[in-house]
Amino acid sequence: MRIRRAALDELPALQDIERAAGGPFRELGMADIADDEPPALDLLDAYRRAGRAWVAVGEEDRPRAYLIAEPVDGALHIEQISVHPGAAHRGVGRALLAYAADRAREEGLTGLTLTTFAEVPWNAPYYLRIGFHVLEEAELTPGLRTIRAAEAGHGLDRWPRVCMRRALDGP
């Protein structure tokens, strides 16, 4: 897989990836997450125009995964990372995170942050394995508190959620 910036005409494909990636949540009793609509095209385009929407593409140069992010309180916050189930378990998500970390370093940011489900195997337990740690309530920055409040307003707190951070080491 190769990682590059998302193109405008690929944004509908990112929505398709999101829908497909939501399917496994149904097996965990999280049908509302599985059925949740992906980010709107105008939101995806805002990330793209800001240079913060990246795709992992295969030999056919078709997106198989994507990541959108924005700076929040000195870190690059991963707003969404989704891998199509057909590309899962191949290190694609890890490669996207490494790419995002490189971009964050270039901007002088100090880490990666994200919010995720605490008990979903491919969420918090996965991120713990690749170097993230759970932030305690007292460690949350103002921006992360705002993000968590918005998530709660969307009903995501029906399932346990956590904020996580991974420091960026060196250049």
UniProtKB/TrEMBL annotation:
An example Gene Ontology molecular-function term: acyltransferase activity, transferring groups other than amino-acyl groups
PANTHER family in alphabetical order: PEPTIDYL-LYSINE N-ACETYLTRANSFERASE YJAB (PTHR43800:SF1)
Native organism taxonomy: Bacteria, Bacillati, Actinomycetota, Actinomycetes, Kitasatosporales
Chain ranges of the N-acetyltransferase domain: 1-151
Entry-linked CDD domains: NAT_SF
Native species: Streptomyces albiflavescens
Gene3D superfamilies linked to this entry: 3.40.630.30
Source taxon at top rank: Bacteria
Residues of the signal peptide: none
Pfam families the UniProt entry points to: Acetyltransf_1
Protein name: GCN5 family N-acetyltransferase
Keywords per UniProt: Acyltransferase, Transferase
SUPFAM superfamilies listed in its UniProt record: Acyl-CoA N-acyltransferases (Nat)
Cross-referenced InterPro entries: Acyl_CoA_acyltransferase, GNAT_dom
